[in-house]
Design goal:
- With about 625 residues, the protein is of the alpha/beta class.
- Helices cover about 30% and strands about 20% of the residues.
- The radius of gyration is 26 Å and the shape is globular.
């Protein structure tokens, strides 16, 4: 990195001295002191015009300068806070490309089955919760996945557990346990009764009430059948007043924010929120209470509601913005693990099914036309190869009728997991963004062949290299709380495709490390129309920056998962510091006079009260750069 690449806010006026044979003298004015400076690191800017640097100056909520230590050191004044990096890797803040923000917060409140090795272990956790609960209290859990257990559940139907064990230990408490994918759930008899599900209850469109040979519900609910119990849960929660419900939602925002910051997430693309939830998020933003930047997709609203209200919810970024709304989400199929993905041919292990259609093509097409008229992006969940083809056809049809270019609209297919080889080139040709989740590949890899067969699994599943070679834009995420929000784990999956066993899942489809990094930063920013604001360490962009404990671009591949986030900076504010008791004095030396309150469990979180936009206020940085937006 040369000094010539250092971008200064102003060059000094030229001082021209008259005199025979003398060159004009150029005097540089000292730059205005920055608020925060990072020195002595390896700064990978993800900006091709800047490359790598060693230091960063931050003024307000924007990056002011990027360069070497000497040049950026000129920005240090008496009040400047300084972080000594000691050679650590500095990156643009990770952007979660597809997750469920309040769902992440809720997942921290309920039973967690992600580490369960078998059904008996889950029943034991529920038994402990039931022993502490009052009769009638609901018991919730999430994260179980039958394919990840050491032994099959007994008894079972279609390889899934039945609810007999739950009935035995929680007869007086409705129990509702959501599958890791979110596309199935297991309910005990008390929960089924609360939902009015009996022997004669028909399957809802796009859902299945799984039954045994005797016709009785086993407790397993696939896809849209979950709504029957979730409506009952809604009726149960309606006993709370509005203030109590909002307090619950606010707590979930706080919990989700803490988790995101701990893993270096500075922006979060929330894949589905109702108008009511967006209203709450808007209030939190106005209070300065959003911990990370949110890009929210409107979901759970009818086409009639979209037609009447969508224009009122268009929120473009302004200033130090923490809430953007300019997209809708629709869902054409379910998940492969729950046999809900819509396939071109039947499942190998369920040959009488090609999956489920959760929303009809016609309904999604109507929503797409409404969104197009309102200036909204369309993001459609599609996992199966039939689902991906139908969505590509739908997008192409709507654009052709409207006479518009798809590349300009940046419509997305969320997940894009299993794609027929003939449809892969269409992503690049049409300009459809593949919003993938790297961690899903290695998490699902061990059992995908059971669902699809070996040949179809290889030809259609997680074809990232083929998509990139076809000119498609990929972004990346975790679909949290389906998977842990950890971007390092998803990055590792992108570059190694190694499953838990250590075996790679068709490694020829892996990304390079820089491709993977770009998918988590600039690619995600592009997929939200925000590449001018974030995704790279570029002067003028948001000062959303992370510092890692190891260099994930150069260390041995198998060492990548051991990397941790040391700092998370959002809008120029240090909002998270990883501290161990033995390192706290060292961290205090690294951070000169940096006040970051709120240490919990060896992790330090900053208040987010001062970082978000407030109506009617502009910082000096706003005034200097308002024209750039």
């Amino acid at each position: 990195m040369t000094n010539a690449r250092l971008l200064l806010p102003a060059l000094a006026a030229l001082s021209l001295t008259a005199g025979c044979g003398r060159e004009p003298a150029i005097e540089r004015m000292a730059p205005e002191p920055a608020d925060l400076v990072l020195l002595g690191g390896k700064v990978v800017t993800v900006d091709p015009s800047l490359g790598e640097a060693r230091a960063i100056a931050i003024d307000g909520y924007r990056i002011e300068a990027v360069g070497d230590d000497a040049a950026v050191g000129a920005y240090i004044g008496p009040e400047t806070k300084v972080i000594e990096l000691h050679g650590r890797l500095v990156l643009p803040g990770f952007i979660e490309g597809h997750g469920h923000f309040l769902g992440l917060g809720r997942a921290r409140e309920i039973l967690d089955f992600t580490a369960a090795s078998g059904w008996e272990e889950i029943v034991s956790q529920v038994a402990a919760a039931a022993a502490a609960a009052e009769p009638g209290d609901w018991i919730f859990g999430r994260g179980w996945h039958q394919e990840k257990w050491s032994s099959a559940p007994l008894p079972d139907v279609d390889g899934m557990p039945v609810n007999a064990g739950l009935n035995a230990i929680a007869a007086n408490n409705p129990v509702y346990l959501t599958h890791a994918s979110g596309h199935a759930a297991l309910a005990n008899d008390a929960a089924l009764a609360a939902a009015g599900i009996g022997i004669d209850t028909p399957d809802p469109p796009g859902g299945t009430i799984v039954r045994g040979d005797d016709g009785r519900a086993t407790g397993l609910l696939r896809e849209n059948a979950q709504a029957l119990v979730e409506d009952a849960i809604g009726r149960h929660e309606a006993r709370l007043d509005k203030a109590a419900l909002e307090a619950v939602a606010r707590r979930r925002v706080r919990l989700a924010g803490e988790e995101a910051l701990r893993f270096g997430i500075t922006s979060f693309q929330d894949a589905g929120a109702s108008f009511a939830t967006i209203d709450l998020l808007r209030r939190l933003e106005s209070e300065g209470s959003l911990p990370v930047r949110l890009y929210v997709m409107v979901q759970r609203e009818s086409n009639e509601a979209l037609a009447g209200r969508l224009p009122d919810y268009l929120m473009q970024p302004e200033g130090n913005d923490f809430l953007t709304v300019r997209s809708i989400k629709r869902q054409i199929d379910g998940a492969l693990g729950a046999h809900g993905a819509w396939l071109l041919a039947p499942y190998a292990d369920l040959p009488d099914s090609t999956g489920l259609v959760l929303e009809t093509v016609a309904a999604i097409e109507t929503a797409a036309r409404i969104a197009l008229a309102a200036g909204f992006q369309v993001n459609t969940h599609a996992i199966g190869d039939r689902a991906n083809r139908e969505v590509l056809d739908l997008y192409e049809r709507v654009w052709r009728e409207a006479g518009v270019s798809g590349a300009d609209l940046r419509w997305r297919i969320e997940h894009a997991q299993h794609i027929h080889p003939g449809d892969i080139p269409r992503f690049g040709h049409l300009g459809v963004i593949a919003a993938v989740q790297g961690i899903h590949c290695t998490s699902d890899g061990p059992w995908i062949p059971a669902r699809l067969g070996d040949v179809r699994a290889e030809q259609t599943s997680y074809r990232w290299r083929d998509l990139l070679d076809a000119g498609a834009v990929l972004n990346n995420g975790t679909d949290t709380p389906v998977e842990p929000i950890d971007p390092i784990a998803s990055f590792y999956a992108l570059v190694s495709r190694k499953m838990k066993s250590g075996e790679p899942f068709h490694p020829g489809q892996a990304m390079t490390r820089m491709e993977a990094l770009k998918s988590y930063t600039l690619g995600n920013a592009y997929s939200a129309f925000e590449e001018h604001l974030k995704g790279s360490i570029t002067p003028g962009k948001y000062a959303d920056i992370i510092v890692l404990s190891k260099d994930i671009l150069t260390i041995a591949e198998d060492e990548i998962p051991t990397t941790q986030v040391d700092y998370t900076i959002v809008g120029g504010e240090v909002r998270f510091i990883r501290t161990k008791p033995e390192r706290r004095s060292e961290m205090r030396r690294e951070v000169n006079a940096l006040d970051v309150p709120g240490t919990r469990n060896g992790l330090t979180y900053a208040s987010c009260e001062s970082g978000t936009r407030r109506a009617g206020t502009r910082t000096r940085k706003d005034q200097n750069t308002a024209g750039r937006e």
